[in-house]
From TrEMBL:
This is Uncharacterized protein. It comes from Streptomyces fuscus. The chain crosses the membrane at residues 53-72, 79-98, 104-124. Keywords: Membrane, Transmembrane, Transmembrane helix. The lineage of its organism: Bacteria, Bacillati, Actinomycetota, Actinomycetes, Kitasatosporales.
C-alpha cells in the first residue's frame, strides 16, 4: 500500500509540472508560469527562448518524477536517485520562475528530498 501511494504521489506531482507550464487555452491563470523574475531582474528581454526553457525544465522535472514513480512501483532502488534529481530540478524551475502560487510545489519538492534523505518510507528502502 505504501509503495502504491508513494508511486502515485511521484507520478501526479511530476505531471502537475506539465499542467502548470505547458501552454494551454485557459483564459485566466493565477500567474504567468513563463515569467521569470530572475531573468526580468537581470534585464533579459522576454523571449520565446525563455518560454521554451521553462517548458523544457518542467518537462525534465515531470519525466524524472515519472521515472521515480515507476521505479518505486517496481521497487527498484533507483527511485531515490530519480526522486532527488526530480526534486532538485523542480526546485530550480520554481526558483527561476517563482510565484507565490508555487509555494506548495516548493514544499513538496523539499519534502521529497527530506523523505529520501531520511529513508522514509522504510518499506521502500
Amino acid at each position: 500500500m505504501t509503495t502504491a501511494l508513494v508511486s502515485a504521489f511521484l507520478f501526479v506531482h511530476g505531471l502537475l509540472h506539465l499542467a502548470v507550464w505547458l501552454p494551454h487555452g485557459a483564459a485566466e491563470q493565477p500567474f504567468d508560469p513563463r515569467h521569470s523574475w530572475v531573468l526580468a531582474a537581470a534585464g533579459a528581454p522576454r523571449a520565446r527562448s525563455v518560454d521554451r526553457a521553462a517548458i523544457g525544465l518542467a518537462s525534465v522535472t515531470a519525466m524524472l518524477y515519472v521515472i521515480a514513480g515507476a521505479s518505486a512501483a517496481a521497487q527498484s532502488s533507483g527511485w531515490t536517485t530519480a526522486a532527488l534529481l526530480a526534486a532538485a530540478s523542480g526546485l530550480l524551475l520554481k526558483a527561476l520562475w517563482f510565484d507565490p502560487w508555487l509555494t506548495l510545489g516548493v514544499l513538496l519538492d523539499v519534502g521529497v528530498i527530506a523523505a529520501v534523505l531520511a529513508s522514509w518510507p522504510g518499506a521502500l528502502f
